[in-house]
Structures are given as structure tokens and as C-alpha cells.
Write a structure and sequence with these properties.
Elements lengths: L2 E2 L5 H5 L4 E7 L4 H15 L5 E6 L5 H5 L7 E6 L2 E7 L3 H12 L5
Helix pairs in contact: 2-4
Length: about 110
């Protein structure tokens, strides 16, 4: 699924069905730029995961509602619920988050 760049509200995120990856960062952030190719590579293997890149800054509501303090921060959600959250992840951590988010569980 292609990346979205319009920032949704927290209420919209909480109502989103299925797997969703929120990527919080800033265009000038070196850590964010370094993560981009690794994240793109992993996302290419998960075409059904919705990916929203959020340009974050001090005082931005969506980032604060998820407790973002470092960039990049990835928030892995399924059906509006946080499965995992990680700051400055490496490739292995991203893969773990994707697997946890896309795992189908019998309830």
C-alpha cells in the first residue's frame, strides 16, 4: 500500500481497521533519513500494511498522543490498538514489529 502523507487525527487512527504503521519523524532528521531505505525494503514485503508518515515537531498533537520523544519513532497498530512502539529501530526490530502487527490471532 502506498505511503500517505496527510496527518490523520488520533480518533481516525483509533478507528482504523487492520495493520497500520505510523512513522513519526522530520524531513531534516538524519536518523530518519538513514532509516528510510531499510523501512522501504521491509514495507515492500508487506503490501497490505497501511503506512502513514507523520512530519512531527514539538507540540504536534498526534505525536504527543503516542508519547513520541525521539525520531524516528514507529508505532505498529492493529485495529487501532498499539502492538509495538519503537524509537530509532534497526532492521531486525522493524521486522519484529511488522510480524507482531500482521500476526493473525484467534480470539
Amino acid at each position: 500500500m502506498p505511503m500517505e502523507s496527510t496527518e490523520p487525527t488520533r480518533e481516525e487512527i483509533d478507528r482504523t481497521p487492520g495493520p497500520l504503521l505510523l512513522e513519526f519523524g522530520a524531513s531534516w532528521c538524519g536518523h530518519c533519513q538513514a532509516l528510510a531505505p531499510q523501512l522501504a525494503e521491509v514495507l515492500a514485503t508487506y503490501p497490505d500494511v497501511r503506512h502513514i508518515k507523520v512530519e512531527d515537531a514539538s507540540g504536534r498533537r498526534l505525536g504527543r498522543s503516542f508519547g513520541v520523544t525521539l525520531w524516528p519513532t514507529l508505532v505498529f497498530l492493529r485495529d487501532g490498538r498499539i502492538v509495538q512502539k519503537m524509537a530509532r529501530p534497526d532492521r531486525e526490530e522493524i521486522l519484529e514489529g511488522m510480524a507482531a502487527m500482521t500476526e493473525i490471532k484467534d480470539e
